[in-house]
Design a protein that fits this description.
The structure is a single chain. The protein has 231 residues and is mainly alpha-helical. It has two domains: 1-64, no CATH class; 67-228, Four Helix Bundle (Hemerythrin (Met), subunit A) (Up-down Bundle), CATH 1.20.120.450. The chain has helices at residues 2-11, 22-38, 67-95, 101-104, 115-134, 148-164, 167-171, 192-217, 224-228, and strands at residues 177-181, 187-191. The chain has a two-stranded antiparallel ribbon with strand order 1-2. Helix 3 (67-95) packs antiparallel against helix 6 (148-164) and helix 3 packs parallel to helix 8.
């Protein structure tokens, strides 16, 4: 008998005193809540930039970013953050009376680059990508050494070169054909946009992140703000 009642409850919509389906009212209420939650919550006095919004607050909106900001605007601050991470590594080693160069030989796995090579690759991908976008020859970086001072000089040289590139040339590179040459000589074809979004930026952040992880694993007292940059 109990099973039969259960089947009837599932098979029929329950009616309230006004003759309306409770299930229908519940569904309508849920839809109203979803609509309310999907609306942006704006602080008092907030005025969205009219250039970014189309069709009002509840309409579609678009945000544009230049090729320069998406390349130089990312590479330079994170190279500076990488330099600061190395400084913390040196301070950590000196406080514990061991040679900071020991940190540079650490690696996540036997077949992965060590810390010095991760930093070298971050600099390489940033400078080569920026040079390709600006239609310039990349800066000639010195031979990679497992030396803190040498790595800091490499980062500084990379930043100086990237900042010297013309904004207009980089902004005009979105649809231009470029070729990234691998160490084995293979050339990978891209447009400026696809080079940046699908190859160079992911490569750059892979190596910066791995460098952070190696230092953190070694015991250097780092937090996320050190990676993101203290602003």
């Amino acid at each position: 008998m109990g099973r039969k009642v259960c089947q009837q409850d599932h098979g029929q919509s329950r009616q309230n005193s006004n003759g309306h389906s409770n299930d229908h009212l519940f569904s309508t209420h849920v839809q109203a809540v979803i609509v309310q939650l999907s609306r942006p919550v704006l602080r008092p006095g907030f005025r969205p930039d009219a250039r970014l919004w189309r069709g009002g607050i509840e309409g579609n909106f678009e945000v544009t970013i230049s090729m320069y900001d998406a390349s130089v605007g990312l590479f330079v601050p994170y190279l500076r953050n990488l330099s600061a991470l190395l400084d913390k590594g040196v301070a950590y080693a000196e406080a514990r009376k061991f040679n900071p160069a020991v940190l540079l030989g650490m690696r996540m796995a036997p077949d992965m680059y060590d810390l010095a090579q991760q930093i070298g690759e971050a600099c390489r991908h940033a400078t080569v990508a920026a040079a390709l976008l600006a239609d310039r020859e990349p800066v000639a970086l010195p031979v990679l050494e497992h030396d803190m001072a040498g790595l800091q000089a490499r980062i500084a040289t990379s930043i100086e070169f990237i900042e010297s590139l013309p904004r207009a040339e980089i902004n005009a590179a979105a649809e231009r054909n470029v070729f990234f040459r691998l160490k084995n000589g293979t050339e990978l074809p891209f447009t400026g946009r696809t080079l940046l979004l699908t190859f160079s930026v992911p490569q750059f952040f892979f190596h910066v992140t791995t460098a952070y992880d190696l230092l953190r694993h070694a015991g250097v007292e780092l937090v996320k703000k050190d990676y993101l940059g203290r602003r």
